[in-house]
Each structure stands twice: as structure tokens, then as C-alpha cells.
């Protein structure tokens, strides 16, 4: 069986995903299982304001239906389940899933976001 390369994965160790309908944090071991099985037994979690705040982003302002948050120089604009991620006043990406925010934050800062309110494995 051909292995998946880590560079082909959209998930990485530390990402929060849904597994069997429950929030699950990917570990190094579960990531290796995904690579060996050549399939994704998990799916992305739709991002919400609760997730954004639980990662330490603080509320700045609202305009119409858009709520703006900031953390470590990264601004996110949340509106109807979509998040625009800005860094140094430039739009970096528009995302819909928790793991995408985690991966963008890591790519920009080199740090993992720390989840402060949910106890998961």
C-alpha cells in the first residue's frame, strides 16, 4: 500500500478535528495512522466565534455582521462561518475550519494555538 506523504496532508499534529462526531486533537500517533491508512478518518470542524476566542483571540469590534478579533498581530474577521485572516494589514486567506486557523497561525508565527476551554485527548 502506498503511503500518504506528510506534505499532502491538510491536517497536522495538534489540529482539532471531528472523529466519530466528537472533537478530537490529532496526536503524532494518530497522524501516523492516517498516513499508513491512506485515508482521512476525520473531518474539519466548522469555525465559530467560540473557537476563535478559545484560542486566545480577543474581540476588537463589530461592523454589520462582521466581528473582528486579534491575537499576536493576526486579525480575523468572522462573518457567517467564514473567517478572513489578516497579517500586517494584508489578507492572507479566507477559511472555514478550525484546523485551517491553527495551520495559518503556525505558518505565520511558528507557534501553535493553545485551546483554553475544552478538554480533549
Describe this structure in words.
By secondary structure, this protein is an alpha+beta fold. It has a domain at 49-109. 23% of the residues lie in helices and 31% in strands. The protein is built from 3 helices and 7 strands, in the order ββααβββββα. The protein has helices spanning 28-37, 49-54, 98-109, and strands at residues 16-19, 22-25, 58-63, 66-71, 74-79, 82-87, 90-95. The strands form 2 sheets. The chain has a 5-stranded antiparallel beta sheet with strand order 3-4-5-6-7. It has a two-stranded antiparallel ribbon with strand order 1-2. A hairpin with a 2-residue loop joins strand 6 (82-87) and strand 7 (90-95). The longest helix has 12 residues, at 98-109. Mean pLDDT is 86; it is low at 1-8.
Strand order of the largest sheet: 3-4-5-6-7
Oligomer: single chain
Structural class: alpha+beta
Low-confidence stretches: 1-8
Mean pLDDT, to the nearest integer, reads 86
> What is the general shape?
elongated
Radius of gyration, whole Å: 15 Å
What is the count of β-strands? 7
The DSSP helix count reads 3
SSE string: EEHHEEEEEH
The N- to C-terminal Cα distance equals 29 Å
Q: Characterize the biggest β-sheet.
A: 5 strands, antiparallel
In percent, how much strand structure appears in the residues?
Answer: 25-35%
